[in-house]
Write a structure and sequence with these properties.
Layout: H1 3-25, E1 32-36, H2 43-59, E2 63-67, H3 74-81, E3 89-94, H4 95-104, E4 116-132, H5 140-149, E5 155-158, H6 164-176, E6 182-185, H7 189-197, E7 203-207, H8 208-216, E8 220-225, E9 251-259, H9 264-279, H10 281-289, H11 302-322
Parallel strand pairs: 1-2, 1-3, 5-6
Antiparallel strand pairs: 3-9, 4-7, 4-8, 4-9
Helix pairs in contact: 2-9, 4-6, 4-11
The structure holds D-malate.
D-malate (MLT) binds next to α2, α6 and α7.
């Protein structure tokens, strides 16, 4: 080959190699879509937007939130986990979509244990038993007696089979021995909360982040938080243990995952961006004001988050497999 052509050929090869390397090292080179599998205004959407806002700064590219609601969050998660594994489609899921859904939907189109890439936990979200403000029972004991006596009349709101609100109220109904309360399904607890505030449904079990402000404003009432400790965001709300129902305790959470097979560079950068967001004072304050529990260092790692998903799936599967799907 003549020298000039050889030099040009080598230069072209080097340029291609550089472009490839730069692209791999340069993730992300375009906006990243984060699928929120519920309606806007609910806990998943709220946490996703707060965290993504800061992660976008670290990544140097916008994380765009896309709400894909339906089937208790499984429609959106299935969309995210079957997307190209290139780091440009990820999802904010939770206890429901990652740990409860497999026990709820026998034909689920994704496998959170073996078929996805975890990034990390974004926050713990204590569960509150909340009711419309003029619902008759005054406290948790009153609520328990009232619901037992009127199981055929009261209405529960939830965000679809396998969602956190459905899962946690299903466990509550198991404790109360009232498995068949009339339930109204919404595309997220954002819209369900609107109907609770306007008094069209009686009660629900929801993650603190979307209800804290309404409880503080007395637009709805909170009977108890189903955690071991009271939430600093709502210090007047007793724990279920304090209020007389110690057997009802459940911790919910939200976290980020993507399709299996994501490039290591994308995983590393997303993990780093999540960690930086959770260490950022402004982001922390926004999360803490809503009652979010900040994840431990271990829970912020892909392996730590995967272990949490598996632990909770193992815990929930027996109760949810046997529960009425309504
Ligand atoms: C939501 O964001 O609407 C909730 O997380 C739904 C739920 O799982 O209850």
């Amino acid at each position: 080959m003549p020298m000039k052509k050889l030099v040009l050929g080598l230069a072209a090869t080097a340029a291609l190699a550089f472009a490839g390397g730069a692209q791999a090292q340069g993730y992300p080179t375009k906006p990243v879509t984060m699928i929120v599998p519920f309606a806007a205004g609910g806990p998943t959407d709220i946490i996703a937007r707060i965290v993504a806002d800061n992660m976008s700064k670290t990544l140097g590219q916008q994380i765009v939130i896309e709400n894909v609601a339906g089937a208790g969050g499984t429609t959106g998660i299935a969309r995210a986990l079957t997307a190209a594994p290139d780091g440009y489609t990820i999802a904010m899921g939770h206890l429901g979509t990652f740990s409860a859904a497999p026990a709820t939907y026998p034909g689920l189109k994704y496998d959170p244990i073996n078929g996805m890439q975890t990034i990390g936990l974004a926050g713990g979200t204590p569960i509150l038993i909340v009711a419309r403000k003029n619902f008759e029972p005054k406290d948790l004991n009153g609520f328990v007696s009232y619901v037992k006596a009127n199981a055929d009349k009261v209405n529960e709101a939830h965000a679809g089979l396998g969602s956190v609100s459905w899962t946690t109220c299903t466990l509550l109904k198991g404790v109360l021995g009232t498995p068949k309360i009339n339930a109204v399904a919404y595309r997220g607890t954002g819209p369900a909360l609107n109907d609770l505030v306007s008094g069209q449904v009686d009660f629900m079990c929801d993650q603190i982040v979307s209800v804290a402000e309404q409880v503080r404003a007395n637009s709805i009432k909170a009977y108890a938080v189903a955690s071991a400790q009271r939430s600093p965001a709502l210090p007047d709300v007793p724990t279920t243990k304090e209020a007389g129902l110690p057997e009802y305790q459940i911790e919910a959470w939200n976290g980020i995952a993507g399709p299996k097979g994501l490039p290591k560079e994308a995983v590393d950068k997303l993990v780093d961006a999540l960690n930086k967001a959770l260490n950022d004072e402004g982001t922390k304050k926004r999360l803490l004001d809503l009652g979010t529990v900040l994840p431990t260092a271990e829970e912020r790692t892909p392996a730590g988050f995967a272990a949490l998903i598996k632990r909770d799936a193992d815990k929930l599967t027996p109760a949810l497999s046997a529960a009425p799907k309504q």
